[in-house]
Amino acid sequence: MVKAKARSAVSFFLALLMIFLFICSPVHIKVHSTDGYTKSYYFADGNGSFRILRCSSQLYKLYSVSSRGETTVSASESIPPQLVSASAGKMIIVYSSRANTNVIAYDLNSSRKTVYLLPGTKGDPAAVCADQNDCIYFTDSSSSDVIIKYDTRGRELCRYHSDSRVDKLISAAGSGKAYALTDQGILDLDNNVIYTGNLPQGELTFNGNYFSDSCGSVYQLDDQNGFCCLFRSSYPDICFDGENYYAASGSRIIRLSVNDDIISEFDTGTVIDHIIASGSNVAYVCGDELYLLDKGSMRSRSGNNDPSASCVRQSDHNINSRSFTILGEMIISDKPGTTFAGFKNGISHGTYSVSAVDHNGSNVSSGILGTGARLIFSEGNDSRSFTIVVKGDVTGEGNSNSRDCKLIADYILDISRPGAAEKTAADINNDGNITLYDFYSLYRQS
Predict the structure, then answer these.
(1) 19 Cβ partners below 8 Å, 6+ apart?
(2) Residue 192 contacts by C-beta under 8 Å, 6 or more apart in sequence?
(3) Residues 6+ apart with CB under 8 A from 362
(4) 201-205: long-range contacts at Cβ-Cβ below 8 A with a sequence spacing of 24 or more?
(5) Domains plus CATH for the chain?
(6) N or C: which end of the chain has fewer CB within 10 A?
(7) Residue 8 above 70 pLDDT?
(8) Cβ distance 19 to 36 under 8 Å?
(9) CB–CB of 372/359 below 8 Å?
């Protein structure tokens, strides 16, 4: 009897210990995997939850992901989207039928669906957004300098004319005022005011009034402040949770100071494709998986896990170049055939010594360096490694040829998946995606 009670007490204590360790351990949560879809999009509702849109050539599914990692199917349609767009609080899908252009707008907070039938539109959809009054703004490829505003019944309310081609349409949280991104600036459609300066580039990711682009900048867009750039980082993949800036670099999540210095970091153990914030929550994408970041698992450079620890300036801030682009831990060259000496002489590295490892992992001191090779800058115990990316060189050979074109085609067809360096090398036009445009551009060059 005594032994049985002792065993029960021990079992009860072990169960409590396991529950405590489960609750307190710094873990990241895998939320959802793909089910045979060929394209995925990730959105934030701005209140701590996320949405995942899985698309194939036949249908799409929209998943809602709570801050606890619970996943449910919000919507499913047997139609292939032509255009997917999102801005503050809204996600929009566009597809065409014989008589109409069909627009479906989902409220990212409630998953409420509004369907619009736009008769008489011509050309492929180019840009679209929705405001908080459920009006949509639309432009197509046949008249990309004209923006048409529609109500929920598909009736035209008014037209806006831009002096240049419209690349994107976005709306602000709150009133949902619409803005047009053009090559001349950002146009406030209601007030006819254009903002110039540091403009968003590539894909945009929204978190309430804040959004980031695919070139390392964070912006604010609201009625009080209008449009402004809050932060520009050397890391291209970045998000803002309302208090802190987070960047993805290789397999690491990095928390940055306002001076772009590393405060704390977390190594996920696998290459990160994208990072996104919703409210105060941060998530990251690896392959087809979305993970929620436990911020308590991030460790400062001084070795403790206090995210508020003082920052330590990185040695790579002393490394710069006018010949190459340095983004995060990548050195990007648009000159195929560059040798080790060419990289070394084209980079200002102070008192650091420079060595190199080719894309196969062999130490080299001469010859051409291609995508996947690494440059190591070291001085005493201080060492920093940068991955080389040569635009158009996906194979790592250092030059562009038909083999690189074939690999880009494999990426587009989802036959194989690129790593972070290969993805950057294959993205010829720097829009954050690998598309037929990149294939055609490289094909013409090679």
Answers:
(1) none
(2) none
(3) none
(4) 201/430, 201/431, 202/430, 202/431, 202/432, 203/431, 203/432, 203/433, 204/87, 204/168, 204/170, 205/42, 205/43, 205/44, 205/239, 205/274, 205/276
(5) 29-300 (2.130.10.10), 318-445 (1.10.1330.10)
(6) N
(7) no
(8) no
(9) yes
Contact 127, 189 (CB under 8 A): no
Is a pLDDT exceeding 80 seen at residue 247? yes
pLDDT at site 370: 94
User: 437-446 contacts: CB < 8 A, separation 24 or more?
Assistant: 438/408, 439/405, 439/408, 439/409, 439/412, 442/392, 442/400, 442/404, 442/405, 442/408, 443/405, 445/392, 445/400, 446/392, 446/400, 446/401, 446/402, 446/404, 446/405
Residue found by looking up tokens 């489960």 in the block: 22
Q: Quick one: average pLDDT of 160-167? A: 85
Classify the C-alpha dihedral 410-414-419-425 as positive or negative.
positive
Two tokens, residue 196: 């110039």
Q: What is the mean pLDDT of the chain?
A: 79
